Amino acid sequence: MFSSPWFETRRDTALRPDGSTGNYDHVISTGSVTVVAVDEAGFVAVTRQWIYTHEGVQWRLPAGRIEPADQDAETAARRELQEEAGLSARTWQPLGVINCADSFTNHRDHAFFATGLTQGTPNLDPGESDLEIRRIPFDQALSLVVQGEMPHAGSSYALLMARTLGLG
After folding, report:
1. CA–CA dist 145, 149 (Å, integer)
2. What would you report as the CA-atom Rg of the chain, rounded to the nearest whole angstrom?
3. Which of 65, 90, 103, 150 is the most buried (most CB within 10 A)?
4. DSSP secondary structure code for residue 148 in this structure
């Protein structure tokens, strides 16, 4: 129905659980990545920026789209962490994948835990010119999730998984 470099919309004829068929409109996405980047002191890299679709400024972890040129989700995560925070990491651990909006899209966010950080220079897109990067204690990042100040699904999932796995 519609296609752009970011996503496409489709109308499929779907077989329902009761055996009948009907139209199913949905969005197809390449997916995204989110990174819990933790330094030696236990501080997490967080971003704060204007999110157009939510009409406001939000806290989130470094995150972004899996580009067609990315070899895999980890490649995208490495690229996004460098672009947004100027960070590279020595150690990477997958935290899992979360479905972001079932029934509406196939969009999945791949979460990673990154340590052994080295600071470089961010490489922001024009739409990210307002992006602020900060490092805050892990527990403070979790508090942002609990208080509803970090509503990004991938960020919430990644932080909760890191804590559950005993990483943060």
Report:
1. 6
2. 17
3. 150
4. T
